[in-house]
Specification:
Among the domains are: about 45 residues; about 110 residues, Receptor-associated Protein (Up-down Bundle), CATH 1.20.81. About 15% of the residues are buried. About 85% of the residues lie in helices and about 0% in strands. By secondary structure, it is an all-alpha fold.
Length: about 300
């Protein structure tokens, strides 16, 4: 039975690795074609954020939408919020999410049934049943875990890049640019250092050029990122517009506070480093030392007990 379980685990690992490489290759092929088409047709490109991701065909989504998408508007709104924080803002993001979610869940259930049928025995049914339940549970929530992970990493990337972008924004405004023009310039400057923040700033510029209200655009920017510092920045800009305060002076004060906050975070991490190193040293040093010192004595004691039991 142990050999059968190991065989199935190795087969699952090989299949998963093959699927990952296939996905990466097809995705890279589509991205390269998209970049080539934009290079050959410069007029077709725009400043709007576009998803360069492998998504199912629209016809497939429309054909199964009524079967996989719930009817509850609150559930749809919550899913849209999670996908927006993860960077998925295309029109069919919710349908694609449910398609992947149920597809992975069904595939996991089928694999769990196959695994149970191959490993189930009368003597030890507990381990195969437990493995089946774990596989089904993980496969059902795998899409949610992926979205939450993507949103968390995206939030960290935007949060780390925002202080530098704020300094650039202050420099542009002090140089004579308006706020809209300064945001456009900062979006171009941060494209290489932080693609996530650059995309969000480009989205702001596109919405402002389309005639959308600035307060609404900034509020949407705060909602899309979910970063506390950006929410505070949006509040500061709104208050400066409301009370007629100079945006440059406001950003200068807020930028100084952001630098101090980043310095305090770095100092806090530096102060925590000795504690983490001490815990790591204790966890990886004391158990081997105990095994080396006490291990031979334990072996001798067990041998003597075995001899006494044999003699008795």
């Amino acid at each position: 039975m142990g050999a059968t379980i190991i065989t199935f685990v190795l087969a699952l690992a090989l299949i998963t690795t093959a699927c990952v490489f296939l996905y990466s290759g097809v995705n890279e092929f589509l991205v390269q074609n998209s970049r080539l088409s934009r290079r050959l047709n410069p007029g077709a490109s725009s400043n709007l954020v576009k998803e360069e991701a492998l998504v199912p065909d629209e016809g497939i989504i429309e054909s199964v939408e009524k079967y996989i998408t719930p009817d509850d508007p609150d559930t749809i709104s919550a899913i849209q919020r999670k996908l927006l924080l993860a960077g998925y803002r295309n029109s069919s993001a919710v349908q694609t999410y449910f398609l992947w979610k149920w597809g992975i869940a069904i595939a996991g259930f089928l694999f769990a049934c196959f695994f149970l049928a191959a490993t189930m025995t009368r003597l030890s049914p507990f381990i195969p049943l437990s493995a089946m339940i774990i596989i089904v549970f993980v496969s059902y929530f795998l899409a949610d875990m992926w979205v939450l992970r993507k949103a968390a990493y995206r939030k960290i990337a935007i949060e780390n890049a925002f202080p530098d972008a704020l300094d650039l924004l202050l420099v542009c405004i002090e140089a004579g640019h308006g706020l809209d023009q300064a945001i456009h310039r900062v979006a171009g400057e941060t494209k290489k250092s932080s693609a996530e923040l650059s995309q969000e700033l480009s989205q702001i510029v596109s919405e402002l050029r389309a005639g959308k209200d600035r307060d609404k655009v900034l509020s949407d920017f705060s909602d899309r990122t979910g970063v506390t510092d950006i929410a505070a920045f949006v509040t500061v800009i709104k208050q400066a517009d409301l009370y007629g305060v100079s945006i440059a002076d406001t950003l200068r004060v807020y930028s100084r506070e952001m630098r101090n906050k980043r310095y305090m975070k770095a100092e806090e991490k530096a102060n925590m480093m000795p504690i983490k190193l001490a815990l790591g040293a204790i966890a990886f040093t004391i158990p081997p030392v105990i095994m080396i010192l006490i291990g031979p004595s334990v072996v001798l004691v067990l041998r003597e007990m075995a001899k006494a039991a044999t003699v008795g």
